Amino acid sequence: MLINTVTDDALAWQESALCAQAGPEFFFPAPGSSTREAKQLCNACEGRVACLEYALANDERFGVWGGLSEKERERLRREGRDRG
Ligand code: SF4
């Protein structure tokens, strides 16, 4: 079925997700905590671009996705809106 194929393709990046080997506290740090280590892992992750696209498309508000923090993703969204 086409819908399943699209969904499977859209989520294929999760199969190579490096964060699956790290604890959730790593990618969902307490407010004010460093996100540096999580971002370093993202930079080595094959699915980084697809992960970021997923987070933006699904309006993920919390944690590090695709190497960007919540604030960095919000800035990207704002810049996209400003460009129209
Ligand atoms: S880019 Fe980062 S958050 Fe996304 S799957 Fe890879 S390690 Fe996980």
From TrEMBL:
Post-translational modification: The Fe-S cluster can be nitrosylated by nitric oxide (NO). Upon Fe-S cluster removal intramolecular disulfide bonds are formed.
Cellular component, GO annotation: cytoplasm
Subcellular location field: Cytoplasm
Keywords: 4Fe-4S, Cytoplasm, Disulfide bond, DNA-binding, Iron, Iron-sulfur, Metal-binding, Transcription, Transcription regulation
MF annotations from Gene Ontology: 4 iron, 4 sulfur cluster binding; dinitrosyl-iron complex binding; DNA binding; metal ion binding; protein-disulfide reductase [NAD(P)H] activity
Keyword flag S-adenosyl-L-methionine: no
Binding site for [4Fe-4S] cluster: 19, 42, 45, 51
GO biological process terms held by the UniProt record: cell redox homeostasis; negative regulation of DNA-templated transcription
Cofactor(s) the record lists: [4Fe-4S] cluster
Keyword Iron among record annotations: yes
Domain 4Fe-4S Wbl-type positions: 18-75
Pfam families: Whib
Cofactor comment: Binds 1 [4Fe-4S] cluster per subunit. Following nitrosylation of the [4Fe-4S] cluster binds 1 [4Fe-8(NO)] cluster per subunit.
Family classification: Belongs to the WhiB family.
Annotated function: Acts as a transcriptional regulator. Probably redox-responsive. The apo- but not holo-form probably binds DNA.
Protein name: Transcriptional regulator WhiB
Annotated organism of origin: Streptomyces griseus subsp. griseus (strain JCM 4626 / CBS 651.72 / NBRC 13350 / KCC S-0626 / ISP 5235)
Gene transcribed to yield this protein: whmD
